[in-house]
Every structure is written in C-alpha cells, then in structure tokens.
Amino acid sequence: MRKESSTNFSNENTLKEFCAAHKVLMQISGRWKMSILFALTERELRYNEFIDVLPNLSERILTKQLGELQRDNLILKNKDKTSSVYSLTTKGKDFIVLIKSFQSLGSL
Predict the structure, then answer these.
(1) Which DSSP state fits 63?
(2) Which of 15, 64, 67, 78 could form a disulfide with 22 if both were Cys (CB 3.0 to 4.6 A apart)?
(3) Do residues 76 and 70 touch, judged by C-beta distance below 8 A?
(4) Is the per-residue pLDDT at 105 higher than 80?
(5) Strand pairing of 75-79 and 45-46?
(6) Residue 76: what are its φ and ψ, rounded to 5°?
(7) Number of other CB atoms surrounding residue 49 within 10 Å
(8) DSSP readout, 23-52?
(9) What 3-state DSSP class applies to 75?
(10) Across the beta sheet with 45-46, what order do the strands follow?
(11) Nearest one of 54, 53, 41 to 94, comparing CA atoms
C-alpha cells in the first residue's frame, strides 16, 4: 500500500488531473506489460506459456503484471477445467493498434 501523504503520490495525482494520457501511461508502465500484451496479439496464452514466451520474466512479476493488466481491463482471464487462459480484451486490442502506430516513431 502506498502512503497517500508522500510527495510521489501527490505528484502522481497532480499529473493524472493535468494530463489524461498520464493515467494510460501509468497503466502500461510495468517493465513486462508491453511484452505480455504483444505476446497475446499472437494467441491466447496459459500462465505457463508466458514463461516459455518470455523466459526472463519471473513468476512473481508475471503474476503481478497479469493482475494489473486485468484490473485495467486490458486482458481477460478465462478459467477452464484445468487452467486459466489469458486473452486481450477489446480495450487491449485497441490499445495494441495505437501502440503499433507509434512504432514508426521509434526510429526518429
């Protein structure tokens, strides 16, 4: 839990109020979030498949990032009889389209 009296917390709230894009950037700012989202553009993945696709990603961080992406409605977790399957939501798919349009700016 974060201290609401901290300077960082106060600054973050000010930025969210000043610039709506800041909230979006905070939602995807985790080190592995973009990689997780792009992995899901190929196909739905089970938890263990993320480890195969992103071998340097620890299970602790994967669990944390998946939870945050679900909370922000970018991915969906569907449970079947034996495991959980993750996929992009409509919001997640729209977000990927937007990010792909920015890829050309990476060479500026």
Answers:
(1) H
(2) 15
(3) yes
(4) no
(5) unpaired
(6) -125, 140
(7) 15
(8) HHHHHT-STTHHHHHHHHHH--EEHHHHHH
(9) strand
(10) 45-46, 84-88, 75-79
(11) 41
Q: Write the single-letter amino acid at 101.
A: S
Mean pLDDT of 8-36: 73
Residues paired with 76 in a beta bridge = 87
Q: Grade residue 80 by pLDDT with cuts at 50, 70 and 90.
A: confident
Q: Which amino acid is at 78?
A: N
Nearest partner of 73 among 3, 23, 18, 2, judged by Cα: 23
12: enclosing H helix or E strand: helix 7-18
Q: Which domains does the chain have, with CATH numbers?
A: 31-107 (1.10.10.10)
Write down the pTM of the prediction. Answer: 0.76
Tokens of 5: 């009296």
37, HSE (Cβ side, Cα atoms, 13 Å): 27
Residue 73 φ/ψ, nearest 5 degrees: 60, 35
